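User: Can you model how zinc ion sits in this protein?
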Amino acid sequence: MADTPEHGDEHRQHETHDTVARSGVSRRGLIIGGGAAVAATALGGVLSGGPASAATLGGRPVAYTKARTNEANRDLLLINGKIHTMDDRASVVDAVRIQGNRIVAVGHDAQQAGGQAERIDLQGRTVVPGLIESHTHFISLANRPGHHVAQWELASNVTEVLAFLAARRPSVPEGEFITAMGAGTPNMFAERRLPTLAEIDAVINDRPVFLYQGGGGPARVNTLGKQFFESVSNPTVTVAEDGSLTGANANAALYHLRIRQTFEDKKRSALDAMAFSAQVGITTVLDQVLPPPNAWVGGIFNPALLEPQPNHALFNLNHYRMYDAWLALHGEGRAFLRLQINFLHNQGNIPELGGLENQLPELKERLRNQFPNFGDDMVRTYGIGEWGAPFAAPSNPTGHAVWLEAQRLIARAGWRNENAQAGSPGNAANIEVVVAAYEQMEAEFGIKHLRWGLQHADHATPEQLARLRALGCGVSTSGFRWLNGQPRADGLPVGPLFPQLVDSGIPLGMHEDGVHIAPHNPWFALHYATTGLNVAGQQINPGQQISRQQALHMYTRGNAWYLGREDELGSIEKGKLADLIVLDKDYFTVSEAAMRTVRPIMTIINGEIVHDTGALGRRGR
Ligand SMILES: [Zn+2]
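Assistant: Here's the modeled complex, given as structure tokens:
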């Protein structure tokens, strides 16, 4: 795409909506592609080269068309709540009315409006907008092999892990794996380790179980799992007596599960991932892809290397095909979490390709063949993120030249762009490189209208933040240091420096960066931003706390801006899309110790109740 600056984000987005209105197709019925081939090209780029099988279902092409039919009939009136709207006045109201997928009235107006609504008595519960995650690798969760137990990230010790696994057991057919993967490190659990083979056997001895921690293992199995992995070959897998798989064995085991996954299995995992997200209150995710497998050997692209390999870690997936199951569910009207897709490109300098003019082949194809900001209310593409090329400082001249060229290509194409830099206490040099490059791109091409972003930005200086703000940029900062952050010997805060980020006035969101180095659950991050306490209860971010209102603002209004959707998401206001969560505890007054355990008892996405613990006593569903 050789876009001129006036073809920016906002313009394109409005264009999409106008087209929908004119065609008379509901937003949910928007056709993303005319057929599998078109959609595969649009979403995968021409380099995919993969087999068509991934985009077909039982020999039938998957039409990426939304076809939900019941939305017009839905009419909900929620009353007697403490509804924190997160509007500009921080209004708290007691009622909200939803028609179809939109909020049509709040407060007194909601009670007055007519219509046959299902009334839900909130019984004084706290309600907040659906939380938005502005930096996650969520699609990895949606592709997990086995009957995946994402809930294990909510466990604080081995006993709770075992309870979550056991709870899944009744729905798992004989011979099929129960799995739990990703989400962080052993620090998640009080024992700082995974359950042993004997401990897992004690709760599940009639289904194979496979646990795999963080983005690269280690892993652990029960007896049936051990028997399975000891029966496979190409490659063989070695399991220790205590059920642990270390070194290359963890990824080799993952490989054997991945190559046995069917498309239906992936659809089940995608639905499980959506359900888990609703369970913890995240209603929209901005997916940042994954560092894709290296499929370029000697400067030549080999698509076969994108498919599962024994050395692929959990965070390696075919970045052209990993959305297929979700898109198929979307086509069937069954996807219920909002998904926004960035495109990460991970090509640095490839010597065999020669000079700079020949570098970055994948990014160039992406910018030529992909539609940005394209889709509907539930699934849409966005920009380049969390990076367009691996960051390299000027001290690495070759790598830096490629990185800077990537910024130039993205700016010239008129795309939104992101980079990820956290800095460290007293050192924001790499952030400075990014800010200076963005200023250069503004001078060369004009990027102010494109909402470029900086991820993490923990130690960005007020001066750098002011310059970013002047460039129309936004920041998504991190909440994940609660898990692996340690108190520094010099007493300095590990970051993020939340108060100066807030005070800068820059559009500011927050993320967990799940689902490999950190969990998906946003309440961990909200707890960290407001307390500075790590998982062990140590203060690691002294003097850098913000209020609960400010932290929630980042996860709602701030992230809505970061996703380019502040007009339709992030607050409970008339005309916005109906995403909200009813909480089991009052986030604003609950004790610090209990804040990490806040959960929704009901989650509504796009006007639909997608999670309901039954605490409100609703019947007939
Ligand atoms: Zn990330």
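A couple of observations from the model: Residues 263-280 form the longest helix (18 residues). The two ends are 48 Å apart (CA to CA).
User: Helpful, thanks.
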